[in-house]
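Lecture notes, unit on binding sites. The following record was shown on slide 14. It pairs a sequence with magnesium ion.
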Amino acid sequence: MSAFDKINLSKTPKHIAIIMDGNGRWAQQQGEMRLFGHTSGVEAVREVLKGCVELGVEYLTLYAFSTENWNRPKEEVDGLMNLMVETISNEVEELHKNGVRLHSIGDEAQLPEACRNALIAGKKSTAANKKVNLILALNYSARWELIQATKSIAQKVKEHQLEVADINDQVIHVHLCSKDFPDPEFMIRTSGEYRLSNFLLWQLAYTELYFTDILWPDFTKEDFYNAVLDYQSRERRFGMVSEQLT
Ligand code: IPE
Ligand code: IPE
Ligand code: MG
């Protein structure tokens, strides 16, 4: 019996965010180069995306490259950028067929031209799709995003378009690069690391967190279903007490 059969389809999270971690260790465990792990991780992305289609998850945000990842050896960074270009170009047709719309968050301007172009083309050709929104966090970090938001809010205050007293949650939300998406209800991190690594710090304020030791290339659709089942066993109280929840 698959975990899928135990999932309550009327209570699946609308938005799931994933820190896809452990590619390098997965490759090293089999005596391969780290890049082999990244290439192998693409299959896990396909699996999870299918899982989202089946469960009716509307938004899937994947942490694909952080602003800190530039500090890796040049060979790995170049390999990752090439993989990004190849994967986006090769998968676009399949995304389109499955009704997936591609988005991205992060500092797109600082990406290599080929990567930026693949991303722009992928977003354009899937723009009318409505089933699942796939959001790639590429050259993303939460502090970078919050600095950008702070700068544009400050600029509006300076130009008298906004009063300091009117700055609230919603004002911050609409200045983030993720403004078009609801906050994730659920965040998964693979590979047994218990940290956020500069991912969605604002958006994860009340998100349910799930950590698994499975390395990303080994993460299957069934693992994804099990994670969602775990989510469904939790009580989200938002500061209230159990008795207040209906
Ligand atoms: C995650 O896997 C993918 C990226 C950060 C791009 P890692 O490359 O971080 O794999 P580990 O954590 O070193 O095993
Ligand atoms: C986080 O993983 C970034 C991505 C998955 C893209 P890292 O492997 O870079 O995180 P740290 O450095 O171990 O925290
Ligand atoms: Mg890692």
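Take-home: The chain has a mean pLDDT of 98.
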